[in-house]
Design goal:
This protein is an alpha/beta fold. Helices cover 45% and strands 13% of the residues. The strands form three sheets. Strands 3-2-1-4-5-6-10 form a seven-stranded parallel sheet, with helices on both faces. The chain has a two-stranded parallel sheet with strand order 7-9. The longest helix is centred in the N-terminal third of the chain and has 19 residues. It is globular.
């Protein structure tokens, strides 16, 4: 398998490695035999990271992405060949409660990584992960492509658009004049999968309603999102980082990683499918949200499909089913670390061992 062969013994530096996406990305790279250093701040996500990831195989650094001096020291000492920047305040709801911290973390944190990357001796790929919410959302049915205007009417979306502006400025002003490494930003849609425990997110709220034996409440039942299993964008990130390593000129730029535009499903139907796959009957209650959220958001991933030759493997139903499988094992107190790694092996067609 080409990714497994490529990443074996590569030095990869990941920010935000203890988060939801970061844990899956780190676990994928460990399955590929990569040498990983992770950089994340100390918070409640660490205990979940340690439950689902073989964290002792990782060089874990617990610090703040805003601590420029410490970040630079750790990166330069590790001397990575690939950097994947995921660290962020990732929730719209939190951005309303603490807009300053959200914008500072997402913009200045990205700036720190980008600026330090210019000094790394053996760097070959720099990948900055933002969000589908970086687009100026006019709720277009056609789906947003990489050339559409950026913007944001809430603090989170504005922070992600701003991070993209910073990345673009460095790309045009500095990176395009050097021949050392490829550079790209990646935008993905709403991601589901095992190990997500964030507040005000659909699947975690479903699971919490089961655990706490409480009614299940959703804010915007008819909203649609580009739902995809976490392994879909993670595979895109890994594929893109590899391409950047091999051909800087051809693959540098911005990329979308989303599900097929033909697949649309409303929030209430995602919840119903999830409960069905878990094997639990739950009535869905509706409560008006406290903050504004877009009703429609779609990504157009044709660039990644046509140029990178990347495509989704799991449709929405399969993504929801695999997500339910993980949480069902969690609720039944099974080995969720093994479940997660088996899902990675199945997705990437890696030969299973006796973990």
């Amino acid at each position: 398998m080409q990714l497994e062969k490529f990443y074996k013994n590569k030095r990869i530096f990941i920010t935000g490695h203890t988060g939801f996406k970061g844990s899956w990305l780190t676990s994928c790279l460990l399955n590929f035999g990569a040498k990983v250093m992770g950089f994340s701040q100390i918070d409640e996500r660490i205990k979940h990271y340690k439950k689902i990831c073989y964290y002792k195989k990782v060089k874990n650094v617990y610090s703040d992405i805003l601590n420029y001096k410490d970040l630079k020291q750790k990166i330069l000492k590790f001397n990575p060949q690939i950097i994947i920047h995921l660290a962020a305040q990732s929730l719209v709801s939190i951005s309303y409660k603490d807009p300053y911290k959200t914008i500072e973390t997402n913009v200045v944190g990205t700036l720190n990584i980008i600026n330090i990357s210019r000094e790394i001796k053996n760097l070959k790929s720099l990948l900055v992960i933002t969000s589908d919410k970086c687009y100026h959302n006019k709720e277009l049915i056609r789906g947003y492509n990489e050339n559409d205007p950026l913007g944001g009417d809430d603090p989170y979306s504005a922070s992600k658009a701003s991070a993209e502006f910073v990345f673009n400025a460095y790309s045009k002003s500095f990176f395009r004049h050097q021949k050392k490494f490829g550079f790209a930003s990646a935008r993905a849609g709403n991601v589901i999968g095992g190990g997500d425990w964030s507040n005000d997110r659909l699947i975690p709220d479903c699971v919490k309603s089961i655990e706490n034996k409480k009614k299940f409440v959703i804010r915007n039942p008819k909203s649609t999102r580009p739902w995809q299993h976490v392994l879909e964008p993670v595979s895109g990130y890994l594929f893109l980082a590899k391409k950047l390593y091999e051909d800087k000129k051809k693959y540098s730029g911005s990329w979308n990683f989303g599900p097929s535009l033909r697949e649309t499903i409303e929030v209430k139907d995602v919840a119903k499918l999830f409960f069905g796959f878990i094997g639990i009957s739950k009535k869905v209650f509706i409560k008006k949200g406290k903050f504004k959220e877009a009703n429609l958001l779609k990504l157009n991933s044709n660039k990644a499909i046509n140029i990178l030759k990347w495509k989704s493997k799991w449709n929405m139903k399969k993504s929801i089913q695999e997500t339910a499988r993980w949480y069902k094992d969690y609720l039944e107190k099974k080995n969720i670390k093994l479940t997660l790694n088996n899902q990675i092996k199945e997705y990437f067609s890696i030969k299973k061992d006796n973990d």
